[in-house]
Amino acid sequence: VMKTSMENIRRYHEKQKRNSWFDARPDGTILGQKMTPLDSVGVYVPGGKAAYPSSVLMNIIPAQVAGVERIVMVTPPGKDGSVNPVTLTARLWAPEIFLWPWPRKRATAM
Predict the structure, then answer these.
(1) Which of 14, 40, 51, 106 reaches 20 to 30 Å from 99, CA-CA?
(2) What is the C-alpha separation between 107 and 47, in angstroms, rounded?
(3) Which residues contact 79 (CB under 8 A, 6 or more apart)?
């Protein structure tokens, strides 16, 4: 199910992807739009009782499609300091993502 969701999310965001374009006018004016991905992004994923694998997938896949090179995911750990297994399972589909288990207040303040 998670693999199918990932493929659907990726397919959807691939359709949203825009290309740079430029138009040279006869008077020498150049109009256009250059699309450049951010170098890095931070993603907050809820933890605890509100841990949804879709939160991981719907945050990191659009960034991947856009060409972001570094994605950092923060999520609050449980009382025992561990990250929710559902969140970890979703992250397995994107192993290059940096995962930091931070307390909720610190993660959202960044």
Answers:
(1) 14
(2) 11
(3) none
The torsion angles phi and psi of 76, rounded to 5 degrees, stand at -70, 135
Closest Cα partner for 33 from 22, 48, 43? 22
Contact by Cβ (8 Å): 37, 45: no
pLDDT per position as a tens digit, 22-49: 999 999 999 999 988 899 998 888 877 7
Distance CA 79, CA 67 (A): 35
Is 62 in contact with 71 (CB distance < 8 Å)? no
Counting every residue written for the chain, the total comes to 110
Distance CA 17, CA 35 (A): 9
Which is nearest to 75 in space by CA: 61, 93, 89?
89
**Residue 34 region by backbone torsions, left for phi larger than 0, else alpha for psi between -120 and 50, else beta:** beta
Predicted structure pTM score = 0.73
